[in-house]
Design goal:
heterodimer; A: 211 residues; Methyltransferase, Methionine Synthase (B12-binding Domains), Chain A, domain 1; Rossmann fold; 2 domains; 10% strand; B: 291 residues; TIM Barrel; 10 strands; globular
Chain lengths: 211, 291
């Protein structure tokens, strides 16, 4: 069997075909699915995040790495589910009410999926009640909100209010992001966290669910 | 074809306009509303914005057609109105401009990412061609492709706009990387200038971004990498929330203070993007020669 380091490299370089094949081979050879994820794929995505932070990687590299990770995860996830392992958490993600921009949100969704989360994409122009429903009815434990427009930032606050009114605020972690968003704003509206980049959102979400 | 551009520049730098979206919001456009639809439903208010820029000294004004491509309008059930919205947009700006300003019609991005398979070059090309033709038929003097993050999408729009025979300005957003000097996809000003020049843009530029001071070095680098005139429309800095309200802290005077540096860096067309207003354009005019 090939060195599994190749799987790490495949995810890092965004080679979905190689990533998938190497995963198939490793599984056939009896390597534990969880070990594949934790020892090779997650570290590769962490490295992708680091390279993004230091300007070696940009959005195209993020997307292709997330795609490679996803190709492997599609093989692995059924096995993990069968063995009783659960996804890290279910994240309900959406661009807030009044805002129709979906590129940033899609990027974070792809990175979160690549990071091992189950992602419930609510789309754009998502009303507070839709986020509440995703928590109440679909069991999301993380709410991730995106806004590109300064004028729609207040929708983040009203969503947090709606979660409170519905009595589910303490059941979820709320994270926010988007061009005009700052840590200060996150603090101001009582969000649990803020990330300025898509890879950062994965680190943030992991930290939040561990907290 | 590009005579219009050289004629305009014959008398020195050209002041363009400022933001439209934020100006329409001042007049009652709600977040989540499609600004472009106002060309049909509130042409009077759209005309007010255009007129305010002409009065402020803009020699080039844009049109309220930034999002009027099929890919964007489709999401709101308005794809059938592409032609009407674009033609009306040009009409409104032309009436406001009279013989005092030229109308450069605005084409923005599709809002979809090519790379993640949300759209294809063919779909983009069809959508942009339809919009560009409507703008040309409406009588636009030139077309401006703006706020592009992806060079491939910008090139699809550029090809579609060029097919109309009008002069075309192509500009992208530089707001990524630690120095905020790359496009979202990682392209440098040099790569952007070279590729858009090769693809036939008549004017090359940068708009939106994170503030005017950051666009001075970007402008220099674009200037050094192409023989085409440079177009810069920067934001009024990044907005902040104050007591639940969105505020752009940069004042017209602070913004205009960077204008001489932009001109020295090689910008030929200078205006503003998000958060700027007619007051910004008046301030910009005072900083340039011959005004």
């Amino acid at each position: 069997m090939q060195d599994l380091k190749a799987l790490y490299e495949a995810v890092l370089s965004g080679d979905a075909k190689a990533s998938k094949e190497l995963t198939e081979q490793a599984l056939a050879a009896g390597v534990s699915p969880l070990a594949l994820v934790n020892d090779y794929m997650v570290p590769a995505m962490d490295e992708v995040g680091k390279r993004f932070e230091c300007n070696e990687y940009f959005v195209p590299e993020l997307l292709i790495s997330a795609r490679a990770m996803k190709a492997s995860l599609e093989l692995i996830r059924p096995l993990l589910t069968a063995s009783g392992a659960k996804p890290l958490a279910k994240v309900a993600i959406g661009t807030v009410k009044g805002d129709l921009h979906d590129i940033g949100k899609n990027l974070v969704a792809a990175m979160l999926e690549g990071g091992g989360f189950e992602v419930l994409d609510l789309g754009v122009n998502v009303a507070p009640e839709q986020f509440v429903n995703a928590v109440r009815e679909k069991g999301a434990t993380v709410v991730a909100m995106s806004a590109l427009l300064t004028t729609t930032m207040p929708s983040m606050k009203s969503t947090i209010e709606a979660l409170k009114t519905a009595g589910v605020r303490d059941k979820v972690k709320v994270i926010i992001g988007g061009a005009p968003i700052t840590q200060k704003y996150a603090d101001e509206i009582g969000a649990d966290g803020y990330s300025e980049s898509a890879p950062g959102a994965v680190t943030l979400t992991k930290k939040q669910i561990a907290a | 074809m590009a005579n219009l551009i050289s004629d305009l520049l014959g008398t020195g730098p050209v002041v363009t306009d400022g933001a439209w979206g934020t100006e329409l919001q001042v007049r009652g456009l709600l977040s989540g509303d499609i600004p472009d639809l106002w060309n049909l439903t509130r042409p009077d208010l759209v005309g007010e914005v255009a007129h305010a820029y002409v009065e402020a000294g803009s020699r080039v004004i844009l049109t309220n057609t930034f999002g009027a491509n099929r890919l964007r309008l489709d999401a709101h059930g308005a794809a059938g109105q592409v032609e009407e919205i674009n033609r009306r947009g040009v009409d409104i700006s032309k009436s406001a401009a009279g013989n005092r300003a030229q109308v450069f019609a605005s084409m923005g991005p599709s809002g979809k990412l090519l790379m993640s398979g949300e759209t294809t070059v063919a779909e983009l090309t069809t959508g942009f061609a339809e919009q560009a033709q409507a703008l040309a038929d409406g009588g636009a003097d030139a077309i401006v492709i703006e706020t592009m993050s992806d060079l491939d999408e910008a090139k699809a729009a550029l090809a579609a706009a060029k097919a109309t025979g009008l002069p075309v300005v192509a500009c992208m957003v530089f707001d990524a990387g630690k120095d905020k000097d790359r496009t979202m996809m990682g392209a440098t000003p040099e790569v952007v200038a070279r590729e858009l020049t090769a693809a036939g843009a008549d004017v090359i530029g940068a708009n939106c971004g994170v503030g005017i001071e950051r666009y001075v070095p970007v402008c220099q680098r674009l200037r050094a990498a192409t023989d085409r005139p440079i177009w810069i429309k920067a934001n009024a800095g990044l907005p902040v929330m104050e007591g639940g309200r969105v505020v752009y802290r940069t004042t017209p005077e602070e913004f205009a203070r960077h204008v001489p540096a932009l001109w020295a860096a090689g910008a030929s067309f200078i205006g503003g993007c998000c958060g700027t207003s007619p007051a910004f354009i008046r301030a910009v005019c005072t900083k340039l020669p011959g005004r």
